[in-house]
Amino acid sequence: MTNTKEFDKTTTIGFLGAGNVGGSLAVAMSNAGYPVIAAGSRTFASAQAFADRIPGCTACENIQDVADRVDFVFISTSDDAIRTVCDQVSWRQGQGVAHCSGAASVDILQSAADQGAILGAFHPLQAFNSVENGVKAIPGVTFGIEGDDGMQSYLRGMASDIEGIPISLRPQDKVLYHISGVLMGNLLAVLGSVAASMWEKFDHTRDEGVRALAPMMPAVAANLASAGVPQAVAGPYPRGDIGTIRKHLEAISSSAPEYLPLYIELALVGLPFAVEKGALAPARSQEIKELLESYRVTIE
Ligand SMILES: NC(=O)c1ccc[n+]([C@@H]2O[C@H](COP(=O)([O-])OP(=O)(O)OC[C@H]3O[C@@H](n4cnc5c(N)ncnc54)[C@H](OP(=O)(O)O)[C@@H]3O)[C@@H](O)[C@H]2O)c1
Prior knowledge:
Elements: E1 13-16, H1 20-31, E2 36-40, H2 44-52, E3 58-59, H3 63-69, E4 72-75, H4 79-88, E5 96-99, H5 110-114, E6 118-124, H6 131-137, E7 142-147, H7 149-161, E8 165-168, H8 174-197, H9 206-213, H10 216-227, H11 236-239, H12 242-255, H13 260-276, H14 282-298
Parallel strand pairs: 1-2, 1-4, 2-3, 4-5, 5-6, 7-8
Antiparallel strand pairs: 6-7
Bound molecules: NADP nicotinamide-adenine-dinucleotide phosphate.
The site of NADP nicotinamide-adenine-dinucleotide phosphate has 26 residues, from helix 1, helix 4 and strand 6.
């Protein structure tokens, strides 16, 4: 359904939730010429710090004040607070409201729709840990966008204007889309932490492990980006080096058994990619699978 209200680069914008994502997006939008004029948060100090970064932006004491001043509101609170914050606001007919969550759909903004507001979701598929780093990390980021035609058009244009790459998502796509982001953005960091912790098992420190291993991450990402799946999958598994794999399983069982399940399951999940790449013969893959599964039994 197409809405009648048109949002464009002159539409006034406010943010509710002055954290890492809200702050980063607001700076990027402001730099791209969008009028970000009001901010509110749980604490006034956060709203003030947010407003201090953006020319022409006012920190508001309460969230209704923000909504009353602007035609479009981004709710960039933590996920759990989005619905509560939305429910607390009196919305105007035709006002725009979008949240920044990757997991939730627009339906958590239903109370705004009931009052005639137009709903959207604008999720940057990136890991944000500060506003300073976040602003730098936005160019090239994919934005998962939900909403009706008018909302999509506005948010897609905005994503492009801040040098992002817009993609449209249906409400039913959101959770799987978010899982992909969590696997890459969050659980990859867990995997990196496990890899670094292995260094403690051979008389070095975890920090040394981080220093040694972190430079591999950009190289892996570059391989993935340039060669794609499955060509970027490398190492003893596509090579079919079963002797090396056996040594891994013996060593990890005795020295780091807490990481054995992770190692086995990741290796098993990776075998079909190695076969698809054409590097690993199906029979060899089956042999490796059985070896891995035999160690799975020992930990049950
Ligand atoms: N971090 C990421 O990597 C990432 C990536 C993509 C999308 N997102 C999404 O972006 C949204 C914000 O995440 P974030 O990482 O920016 O979180 P964050 O840095 O923790 O910021 C959340 C902000 O929300 C405010 N807040 C919490 N409860 C509130 C309430 N009841 N009323 C008003 N303000 C409230 C907090 O206010 P105070 O500071 O005033 O206490 C805080 O500034 C979430 O929906 C998240 O899923 C996050």
